[in-house]
């Protein structure tokens, strides 16, 4: 489970190696995939220098759940407290529920414009033109329009992160988020991995949803971003 302590680095070393850029021990994802950066859990000055070279002047260093403190000339952009949650069991989270008129569909590159529009309306977290390349994304449509989605993001060994869980305001309260998380969890478990996720501490509704499905808090995390000198 220690791979979850630095999930961005572990993902870029493994399942997402084809989406990585590296200098020394510093890494980032390719542009338009995600802004996440990776360093060792306890980086030294050379690691920060290598990350600055990767990002360039005034580059955005999205450190995700790495709480390491950068050099003093790096400009803080944001700090957000959150938590990392894991699914500890082997069965699907929650009790399976379905509705005859609700179909879950796979989403891909042809759906990106709709996915970006839904993200803009719901603000579940960062999502870019190539984020869909990180893993499986599922959605629910109403009258032909995408109204809910969730997908896979970080892939440390043995684990898959569920992310981008969002529902359009006009269809909230119908259980779409729970359906999508269950469906993704079933796929993750079927390939012998375990689901996990991250959530902002202030998002009490999402925390309640995940706890209701059976996810447990593993540890608090701090999301932070900086600008390079």
From TrEMBL:
| Gene Ontology MF terms in the entry | acyltransferase activity, transferring groups other than amino-acyl groups
Give the keywords, sorted.
Transferase
Please give the InterPro entries that the UniProt record associates with this protein. Answer: Acyl_CoA_acyltransferase (IPR016181), GCN5-like_dom (IPR013653), GNAT_dom (IPR000182)
Q: Which residues form the N-acetyltransferase domain?
A: 102-229
Against SUPFAM superfamilies, the record matches this protein to:
Acyl-CoA N-acyltransferases (Nat)
Tell me where on the tree of life, at the top rank, the source sits: Bacteria
- Keyword Nucleotide-binding recorded: no
Name of the protein: GNAT family N-acetyltransferase
């Amino acid at each position: 489970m220690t791979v979850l302590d630095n999930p961005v680095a572990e993902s870029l070393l493994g399942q997402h190696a084809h989406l990585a850029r590296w200098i020394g021990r510093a890494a980032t994802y390719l542009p338009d995939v995600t802004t996440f950066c990776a360093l060792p859990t306890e980086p030294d000055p050379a690691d920060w220098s290598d990350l600055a070279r990767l990002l360039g002047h005034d580059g955005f260093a999205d450190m995700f759940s790495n709480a390491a403190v950068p050099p003093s000339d790096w400009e803080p952009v944001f700090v957000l407290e959150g938590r990392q949650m894991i699914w500890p069991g082997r069965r699907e989270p929650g009790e399976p529920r379905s509705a005859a008129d609700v179909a879950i569909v796979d989403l891909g590159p042809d759906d990106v414009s709709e996915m970006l529009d839904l993200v803009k309306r719901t603000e579940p977290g960062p999502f870019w033109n190539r984020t869909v390349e990180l893993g499986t994304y599922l959605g629910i449509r109403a009258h032909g329009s995408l109204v809910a989605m969730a997908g896979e993001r970080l892939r440390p060994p043995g684990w898959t992160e569920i992310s981008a869980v969002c529902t359009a305001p006009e269809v909230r309260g119908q259980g779409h988020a729970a359906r999508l998380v269950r469906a993704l969890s079933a796929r993750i478990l079927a390939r012998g991995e375990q689901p996990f996720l991250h959530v902002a501490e202030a998002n009490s509704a999402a925390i309640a949803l995940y706890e209701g499905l059976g996810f447990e808090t593993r540890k608090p995390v701090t999301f932070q971003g900086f600008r390079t000198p």
